[in-house]
Amino acid sequence: MELPARLCGLWALLLCFADGGDAAPTETQPPVTNLSVSVENLCTVIWTWNPPEGASPNCSLWYFSHFGNKQDKKIAPETHRSKEVPLNERVCLQVGSQCSTNESDNPSILVEKCISPPEGDPESAVTELQCIWHNLSYMNCTWLPGRNTRPDTNYTLYYWHSSLGKILQCEDIYTAGQHIGCSFALTKLKDSSFDQHSVQVMVKDNAGKIRPSFNIVPLTSHVQPDPPHIKNLFFQHGDLYVLGKNPQNFYSRCLSYEVEFNNSQTETHYILSVEEPKCDNLEFEGNLEGTICFRVPGVFPDTLNTVRIRVKTNKFCYEDDKLWSNWSPAMSIGKKANPTFYITMLLIIPVIVAGAIIVLLLYLKRLKIIIFPPIPDPGKIFKEMFGDQNDDTLLQGALPTIPCGTPGIKLTTLWLRACAPTNSHPRGSSSAQGAVFNLSCGGRSPPSLAGLEELNQQPCG
Ligand SMILES: *[C@@H]1O[C@H](CO)[C@@H](O)[C@H](O)[C@H]1NC(C)=O
Ligand SMILES: *[C@@H]1O[C@H](CO)[C@@H](O)[C@H](O)[C@H]1NC(C)=O
Ligand SMILES: *[C@@H]1O[C@H](CO)[C@@H](O)[C@H](O)[C@H]1NC(C)=O
Ligand SMILES: *[C@@H]1O[C@H](CO)[C@@H](O)[C@H](O)[C@H]1NC(C)=O
Ligand SMILES: *[C@@H]1O[C@H](CO)[C@@H](O)[C@H](O)[C@H]1NC(C)=O
Ligand SMILES: *[C@@H]1O[C@H](CO)[C@@H](O)[C@H](O)[C@H]1NC(C)=O
Ligand SMILES: *[C@@H]1O[C@H](CO)[C@@H](O)[C@H](O)[C@H]1NC(C)=O
Known about the structure:
This protein has 461 residues and is α+β, with helices and mostly antiparallel strands. Helices cover 16% and strands 35% of the residues. The longest helix is centred in the C-terminal third of the chain and has 33 residues, at 339-371. Bound molecules: 2-acetamido-2-deoxy-beta-D-glucopyranose (7 copies). Residues 260, 262, 269, 306, 308, 330 line the site of one 2-acetamido-2-deoxy-beta-D-glucopyranose (NAG). Belongs to the type I cytokine receptor family. Type 5 subfamily.
């Protein structure tokens, strides 16, 4: 008889519960009414509601609210709640009323109101919309075009923050590779609460073809400082000291530092991470006000040392600490490489070069002889042809002196007609004497007498 016994137990439990329920004064509250939602600026979403109808007069009304997924629970007496939300996704708020500030108090039924992202193809919206606040003086926002977009889409960026009366359009659009960007001036205000705010940005196109994209940039993060500057390097008690200056707009306590140290001769390269840029026991004549100081131990003063520094924001003042500034201009100290080495090099290099040139010239001369053998003296050939003819001055003068291979001149076959002076002819012939040579380049082919007879018929000169 197990089952009846169990059932009895169950009944007892249920009865017990019912009794307890009756005993507790759980008067359920009526729900809030007229819950509505609206958007101000670019991404300030405001929910408003009215008090419940028929609430107990003894109840001091409180409102319990949270966003979808039970995030950001809040109990407050106001009948509105706002939040900066990048409207790329649907956001819902649930609100209920209750009579105390106690969270575990039973609130009324929760009423929900949602806000949806703007209409349009989500694939057309730009992606990776992000902004960096450079030097606390200008904001650079960049993004990538969405997948479903025409390549000639003209983008516009709008921005708003609490110090502006209205939404402004960013004018300075630029492209950097695949990314598109826009930068606008944003200077840190004296108002200390400014840092607590955010900048709301929205990117859409002029034609309204793409879905707008939103981002909210908290001013306590995404800050990239300008690089610091090195003012002085010196050795003291065997340590290297680096004196520098913070980038404008930043205090030392808000920055973390890296000191890079290079020595090309000893091939040392290391990076020193520094939180507090201060040097104790430094004997320094002069004002160290506003100066940052680093001590680099283990440096050889006899060699050339190169130093540069960079900074990033730290957790004391900012929420993220990932954006390093560029490196400062490098500064060097110490002697350059051994001067005798340079002198030796200065002497040796010209000797080597001269030797190389001589070898090259000799080689070139040999090469020239191989490729272009010398032209045989055509005067000699002429002499042979005319036997005892010895007056060859005229001929010599007429002979070509163009060497083979002269650029621009193609010397393949040259017909040369030579006239011997009639008066000196041994045979006393009154007719002009002529000779025609076929001078192949290099004189390899023997002189040809072809056409000589014909030519000889014509008067010479
Ligand atoms: C809700 O809004 C309607 C119209 O705006 C108004 O008539 C009604 O009184 C409101 N309800 C409450 C409880 O304020
Ligand atoms: C409201 O409180 C008063 C006294 O504090 C009490 O007399 C009255 O019965 C209470 N009314 C209700 C509806 O609880
Ligand atoms: C809230 O209510 C619970 C029980 O309902 C009680 O134990 C707790 O003390 C209350 N807290 C406050 C702050 O009133
Ligand atoms: C950094 O900001 C300061 C003051 O806001 C300004 O004077 C300086 O020119 C800025 N530096 C650069 C590189 O823009
Ligand atoms: C920020 O924008 C300016 C102006 O368009 C540009 O010159 C600069 O290179 C940008 N800086 C970075 C880090 O992208
Ligand atoms: C973008 O602007 C250019 C020039 O202003 C224009 O020729 C082009 O058609 C525009 N693109 C779109 C998609 O409207
Ligand atoms: C120091 O050495 C590193 C590694 O060799 C190099 O990347 C860096 O550019 C050097 N820095 C300077 C200032 O020459």
